[in-house]
Structures are given as C-alpha cells and as structure tokens.
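PROTEIN DESIGN WORKSHEET
SECTION A - STRUCTURE
LENGTH: 154
TOKENS:
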C-alpha cells in the first residue's frame, strides 16, 4: 500500500516571548497546538476569549481552522464556541480563541503556556456563485437534518 503525504505549506509566524511555535504532537497529526498567553479561570457556563500570542501569514488559497482539543473537552467540558473558528489568509492579527466551559459546577483554570486549541491549515477554494432559476436534482434532494438516519428516540 502506498501512503500519500501532503507537501507541507510554509506558514509565517510572529509570536510573543515565551510562546512556542504551533506544533504537532505526533507525526501525521492534522492539528497543531495553540496555547494561551495569559492565565485565565473560566467559570461554569462562562465563555472567554483567550489570546494565543501567535500571528500568522497564510499563503493565498489557504485558511486555518481553530478546533477544540479533545482531551480538554472530554475531561473538563472545554470547547471552542465558534468551532471551527476561521483564520483567513489575509488576517494578520493575533489568533484569539473563544472558549466555553460547559461544566455546570466546576471552574477551569488555565495557565499561560497551556494548550487550549488546535490549528488545522487547509487549502481552500473560492466559489464563483452563479445564480440559476433551479438547481439540478440529487439523490438527497431537499432532505436535511437527520435525513440520513441515526439516533431516533421515538
């Protein structure tokens, strides 16, 4: 079997002092870790926007998407509010992550340098939107939410 590895794309980074470059925990990982640059405590049900100390320049045709970390979600109920958050190629500001503590009783303390999210860099296409009087048919048609089956409580 032949494995196909995508060619790495160069992403320019400016970072705050003491903040590591985004990095991958394991070979083949899709998401590079982002850390918080500040100490923060997030109360139960509270959301907070956290700076990462990282600014990037993506090449044209690419975007980066901020995803929650699965371990923090499982152990503490921490998630990213607008997951995935989109970082467009033209954005040059600091990447900030809006976190939500979904735990109903326990606050969550994060310290500067703690990993809080993952950054996935992907090639993206810009669409050329063409207005037509009617869309072509498909096997799915207009069936939406839950149309493919799955859990049914009834």
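SECTION B - SEQUENCE
RESIDUE ASSIGNMENT:
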């Amino acid at each position: 079997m032949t494995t196909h590895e995508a060619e790495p794309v160069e992403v320019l980074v400016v970072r705050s002092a003491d903040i590591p470059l985004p990095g991958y925990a394991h070979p083949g990982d899709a998401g590079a870790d982002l850390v918080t640059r500040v100490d923060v405590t997030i109360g139960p049900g509270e959301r907070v926007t956290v700076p990462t100390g990282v600014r990037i320049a993506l090449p044209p045709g690419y975007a980066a998407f901020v995803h929650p970390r699965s371990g923090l979600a499982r152990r503490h109920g921490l998630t990213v509010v607008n997951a995935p958050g989109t970082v467009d190629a033209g954005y040059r500001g600091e990447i900030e992550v809006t976190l939500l503590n979904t735990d109903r009783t326990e606050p969550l303390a994060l310290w500067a340098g703690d990993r809080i999210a993952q950054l996935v860099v992907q090639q993206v296409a810009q669409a050329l939107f063409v207005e037509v009087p009617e869309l072509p048919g498909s096997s799915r048609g207009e069936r939406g939410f839950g149309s493919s089956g799955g859990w049914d409580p009834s």
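SECTION C - NOTES
Strands lie at 12-15, 32-35, 40-42, 47-57, 62-68, 78-80, 85-87, 94-101, 108-110, 115-123.
The two ends are 44 Å apart (CA to CA).
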